[in-house]
Amino acid sequence: MTQPVLSHITLGALDLERATHFYDAVLGELGISRLKSGKGFAGWGVAGTAQFFLTLPFDGGSATPGNGVSVSFLALTREAVDRFWQTAMTHGGQDEGKPGLRPQYSPTYYAAYVRDTEGNKIAAVCHT
């Protein structure tokens, strides 16, 4: 049996409603839907399992993006990467790298990078 590397990823958000709206839209382009929400959090995933969460910071402090941190979501097609980036741009995201090949990573690494509404760096990546 192969064990997954990660259980889940959580990012902080101060404006959870705005961030949830952003992620509903951009992750929807990748076939990822919101599966959980509650007071102070929301979670997205596939096949009934939430693996990506947004939450209000538990300590009540500021939610700050990490320097050098990027969360990359798997896209099944290059067109999905393109839609992810365009949807992010129309929902308050900031461009951090338009869709395209990144041959420095691999010959088929096609990705787009954005900052979400809280300043976190995220990407959609297609490996085919």
Using brief descriptors, characterize the structure shown.
128 residues; 4-stranded mixed beta sheet; 20% helix
Can you walk me through this structure?
With 128 residues, this protein is an alpha/beta fold. It has one domain: 2,3-Dihydroxybiphenyl 1,2-Dioxygenase, domain 1, CATH 3.10.180. Helix content is 20%, strand content 37%. The strands form two sheets. It has a four-stranded mixed sheet, covered by helices on one side. A four-stranded mixed sheet has the order 5-8-7-6, covered by helices on one side. A hairpin with an 8-residue loop joins strand 6 and strand 7. It is globular, with a radius of gyration of 14 Å. The model has no long low-confidence stretch (mean pLDDT 96).
